User: Fold this.
Amino acid sequence: MTPAVLGLHIGGSKTHAVRSDDSGEGTGVEITEASANLSSVGHQGADAVLRRIASSVGTGVEAVCAGAAGADTPASRAVLSALLTEHFPGAKIDVVHDTRIVLAAAGLDAGAVVVAGTGSVAWGRNADGREARSGGYGYLLGDEGGAYSVVRDAVRESLREYYAGLEPGTLVQSLMAATASVDALQLMDSFYAKPEPDHWAGLAPLVLELAAEGDPAALRIQAEAAHHLAALARQVLGELGLELPLVMAGSLLVNHNGLSSAVARKVALEDPSSIRILTQPPVHGAVELARQLILP
Assistant:
C-alpha cells in the first residue's frame, strides 16, 4: 500500500487540504477550510483550523507539506511546522512558501511563478537550485496587482470621481451597490472600518468583469495590476537568468483572461503564448512535495 500523504495550501483567505493514498492522481480526502495563515489569524486561529483538518483527514498520514502564503522566515516556518507536528505526530513535515507548490503543481523543478490571489508575489528557481523572490510583502507594504490592491484602487476611483464633482461611473456604482454605500465617503469609511484584505479581496472579480466589458475605469485598474504583476515576474526572471517557463497562478490570473493576457504580453511580448496558466489547484503541488519526503 502506498503511504498516505497530505498537501496543504494555506492562502490568505482559505486553506485547501488534500490527502492522497496513492502515487497517481487519486485522492482520499479533499477539504476546504478557513485560512490557517499565521499572519492573518494568529497562532490560536491556525491551530484550530489545523486541528479540524487533522480530524477530517484521519490517521496514518506519513508526510505533510504545507505551502503557506507569508511563510517567509525560518521563524514563521518553524512555528507552522511545530503546529503540524502536533496535529500529525510521527509524520515528516515540510513548510514552504506557497509559490514553491505552484511550481510543483505545474510539474516543474525549475522555472518562475507569479501569483495573484488576495496578494501578489513572484518566485523562481533555476536548475542549480538558486532562488529569487519579488513582492509578497503583505497589504501594508506591497501586494500590488493582487485582489485587495485592485479593490483599493476601485475605492480610490470612487473618491476621485466624487471630489471631481463627477457622477459615479459604472464601476463606482457597482462597488457602492455591492457594499451598500450611499456615496464614496461612506465607502471610504467602510474601507477604514474593516480593512482586512480578505474582506475586500472578494470584490476584485467585480472590477475585472467590468474591465472585460470595456468599462474605462476598470480597464485602467486592470492595466495597473498587470503592470505590477509583470514587473514582479520580470525581476525574478532577470535575477535568475531564466528563460521561460513562467507559470501564472492565483484566482485573479487563473479566472480572468483579460488580466492574465495583459501580464503575458508585458512579460513576453514576442511570444506570450509561451507563458502558461496553472491548470490544477496548487495544493496538488504540495501533495507531490509531501510524497517526495518519503521516497526511498
The beta strands are 4-10, 14-20, 29-34, 61-68, 92-97, 111-116, 120-125, 131-135, 246-249, 276-277. The first helix runs from residue 38 to 57. The mean pLDDT is 90.
